[in-house]
Amino acid sequence: MTSAEPTTLVTPDMIASKGVWGPETKSYPISESDIRKWAIAVYWPETPPRIYWDADYASSTKWGGIIAPEDFNPFAWPPERPASRQSAGPVPGKKPAKGENILNGGQTDTFFIPMRPGDVITSRSRLSHWEERQGRNGLTIFAYNESEWHNQKGELVKRRISIGVRY
Amino acid sequence: MAKNVYFEDVKVGDEVPAFERKTDFMNWNRYAAVNDEFVFLHMDDEVGKAAGQGAAFGMGNLRWAYVLNALRNWIGDEAQVRELSMQFRAINHKNDVLTTVATVAQKRVEGGEHLIDLEINVRNQDGVMTAPGHATVVVPARG
Fold first, then answer.
1. What is the pLDDT of residues A106-162, one digit of tens each?
2. Which residues of chain B neighbour A34 with C-beta distances below 8 Å?
3. Which domain holds residue A125?
4. Crossing angle of helices B25-35/A32-43, nearest 10°?
5. What's the structural domain count of chain A?
6. Domain housing B67
7. Are residues A25 and A106 in the same domain?
């Protein structure tokens, strides 16, 4: 550790936003093609289950139609990209400063109503709490973020607590 | 298949059939495309090295998907995954062979639902358990 090493990775923004729900984000309507492509990607190179792409088969199940995989992300591909959303984490040609390295630490999801073609999902999230400790990458912070997704009928789709790691 | 597993037929200690993938750019790039996850750490070896991880590495959420796939393949289309929790503790390097591990830990009936709790992990080709966690699935009962 050098003398320039910070003693904390907690930022003023984190303190100010702790426990405060951020603005709601609304997805574009989910399409059958979005679901089919997602399923192909996560099952590659195997043919994904028909429930994700075959409307005739899906209509014969208790769901009555195609549903999305639990992990489907309807918020991918927004047209507007502020600089903060262009690429998370370090960039080529620049040695990351302490605290600029990121990892996905994991998550806990609780799934309720499945997503379907035509659904519009609304999400809100907040920083719940954090822990800081010395790890194999030196001082490391684990930030716990809580989010909720609802569909256009107001039904709860998913609750997530995710762990963002910075070191 | 719509229904694969009935509550009565599951025993504590049962192992869920594994979902296995060798992860290379065919998997990573497709996942990046659908999840819009174009992060230098997942694409550029120099950035991965500068971050102390040796090279570019795979997305935790792809391992997450593999576990969901294993659970889905096991329970069938009409049962539900209610909860999944995982910690990504080890990096997924290119060409790793990842194998899901899911073992029945407990069965319970709650609020009229037949629930099965499982211990979860993802093992790599070196035997490293990369992503410990737990899951709960809701399955039909024969009764």
1. 999 999 999 999 999 999 999 999 999 999 889 999 999 999 999 999 999 999 999
2. 34
3. 1-29+100-167
4. 160
5. 2
6. 7-138
7. yes
pTM summary value: 0.94
pLDDT in tens, A94-103: 888 899 989 9
Q: Are residues A60 and A1 in the same domain?
A: no
Amino acid of residue B19: F
Q: Are residues A163 and A111 in the same domain?
A: yes
Q: Is the ipTM of this complex over 0.90?
A: yes
Q: Which residue of B has its CA nearest to A40?
A: B30
Residues A106 and A152 in one domain: yes
Dihedrals phi, psi of B129, to nearest 5 degrees: -85, 105
User: Are B70 and B102 contacting, i.e. CB atoms less than 8 angstroms apart?
Assistant: yes
Q: B1 lies in a domain?
A: no
Mark whether A3 and A36 lie in a shared domain. no
The answer to whether the CB of A139 falls within 8 A of the CB of A132 is yes
Burial class (CB in 10 A: 0-12, 13-18, 19+), A71: buried
Give CA–CA dist A38/A74, Å, rounded.
10
Q: Which residues of B touch A90 (CB under 8 A)?
A: 40-41, 47, 50-51
In CATH, what number is assigned to the domain containing residue B92? 3.10.129.10
| B105/chain A closest Cα distance in angstroms | 18
Largest CA distance in chain A: 66
Residue of A95, A104, A158 to mutate for B, most B C-beta atoms under 10 A? A104
| Shortest Cα distance, chain A CAs vs residue B12, angstroms | 22
Q: Of A106, A38, A98, A44, which is closest to residue A72 (Cα–Cα)?
A: A38
CB A6 within 8 A of CB A140: no
> What CATH number should be reported for the domain holding residue A160?
3.10.129.10
The answer on A131 and A109 residing in a single domain is yes
Let me know the angle formed at the C-alpha of A120 by A116 and A122, rounded to the nearest 5 degrees: 120
Shortest distance between the Cα of B112 and any Cα of chain A, in A, equals 15
